[in-house]
Specification:
Layout: H1 2-19, H2 23-34, H3 39-46, H4 52-92, H5 110-124, E1 128-129, E2 135-136, H6 138-141, E3 163-164, E4 170-171, H7 177-185, E5 190-199, E6 211-221, H8 226-241, E7 247-252, E8 257-266, E9 283-292, H9 294-300, E10 308-315, H10 316-324, H11 337-340
This protein binds adenosine-5'-[phenylalaninyl-phosphate].
Adenosine-5'-[phenylalaninyl-phosphate] (FA5) binds next to strand 6, strand 9, strand 10 and helix 10.
Length: 343
């Protein structure tokens, strides 16, 4: 009877061991058969009642089965552990042949690209690149530049475009302020360009911003004329656009130059025929310029009888718009990646 039970027990135990998927389950099956209160222990305990010979025979059979099952449990435990290990390795597996994930790299803003190109061209023509402060005094921004106290640009109320600071001073409204700062500390002859950010109270539209970039130019020597200016600015545009361009000089007025002029570039969208970009005129205003006013030289401590020079102020945003055919200046400061990713 006991023998039949043992055979059946062996079969069932093996079946259950085979079915288990994890160590916890295996432990439960182990306790069921080989634990202190397990089936085999109970059988061993019940043998006491049997006659000696029979007890010894069945006892050894039970012990044999115990040893057999122990091995089966150990094998199953190994198998489960191996599977767990494999799973972990699968998770940690790195495919070294998979294509790498590209990190999102930034790139230079179109205004920076243009600023660098412009600096490079002027440097190759002997100009030094200088910088100046964005917060200015009225002296450097206006007075020293021969701009009278009652000039509309200085109006603190609604008419003026200058942004005054509560703590005193103002946000510079052009890079011309750096002309004086440089001349105070350096002796002629020299040629400099000054790229920089400037600030104005404006109603914004497609070609006007409240903060934008200018490039100031200043060349001072004993024998400088408008002809020198024209040659340099023509050469600049030729190199910047990589082809021959046409410019024209128009008389204009700025208190810090005499004579004053404005430079128009032939519209590159229509080659001067007239289109929407140039308001059908064929020309686009790119910069203000002129021969340095004697009063400006005096402010800087130079004798205007000895020195002559030309100065100009170019809008870098508008230059960038021309270069890349951008029809709205506000795109530069919008932070719109659909726009920026094109450069
Ligand atoms: C000036 O700022 C003078 N300081 C330029 C100058 C320097 C004249 C030296 C003579 C000698 P103006 O305000 O015109 O001038 O500005 C110069 C250029 O800046 C313009 O030709 C234009 O290209 C650009 N600009 C002017 N206002 C804006 C604006 N709101 N937004 C974008 N660009 C502008």
């Amino acid at each position: 009877m006991a023998k039949i039970n043992l055979k059946l027990l062996k079969k069932e135990a093996q079946k259950e061991i085979k079915k288990t998927r994890d160590l916890k389950g295996l432990n439960e099956v182990f306790n069921k058969y080989l634990g202190k209160k397990g089936e085999l222990s109970l059988i061993l305990r019940s043998l006491k009642k049997l006659p000696k010979l029979r007890r010894a025979k069945i006892g050894s059979e039970v012990n044999e089965l115990k040893d057999f099952l122990k091995i089966k449990f150990e094998q199953k435990a190994e198998e489960i552990k191996e599977k767990i290990k494999q799973k972990i390795e699968e998770k940690e597996w790195i495919d070294i042949t998979a294509p790498g994930r590209k990190p999102a790299l930034g790139h230079l803003h179109p205004l920076t690209l243009v600023k660098r190109k412009v600096e490079e061209i002027f440097q190759s023509m002997g100009f030094t690149v200088i910088e100046g402060p964005e917060i200015e005094t009225e002296w450097y921004n206006f007075d020293a530049l021969n701009i009278p106290k009652d000039h509309p640009a200085r109006d603190i109320l609604s008419l003026g475009k200058t942004l005054y600071l509560k703590a005193g001073g103002l946000m510079r409204s052009h890079t011309s302020s750096v002309q004086i700062r440089y001349m105070e500390k350096n002796n002629p002859p020299f040629r400099i360009v000054v790229p920089g950010r400037i600030f104005r109270q404006e109603s914004t539209d497609s070609s006007h911003e409240i903060n934008f970039y200018q490039l100031e130019g200043l060349m001072v020597d004993k024998n400088i004329s408008v002809a020198n200016f024209k040659a340099i600015i023509e050469e600049f545009f030729r190199r910047f656009f990589g082809k021959d361009t046409k410019i024209r000089l128009r008389p204009s007025y700025f208190p810090f130059v005499e004579p004053g002029l404005e430079v128009d570039l032939i519209c590159l969208s229509c080659q001067g025929k007239g289109c929407s970009v140039c308001s059908q005129t064929g020309w686009l205003e790119m910069l203000g310029a002129g021969m340095v006013h004697p009063n400006v030289f005096k402010s800087a401590g130079y004798n205007p009888k000895f020195w002559q020079g030309f100065a100009f102020g170019m809008g870098l945003d508008r230059l960038t718009m021309m270069k890349y055919k951008i029809n709205d200046i506000r795109l530069f400061y919008s932070g719109d990646l659909r726009f920026l990713n094109q450069f």
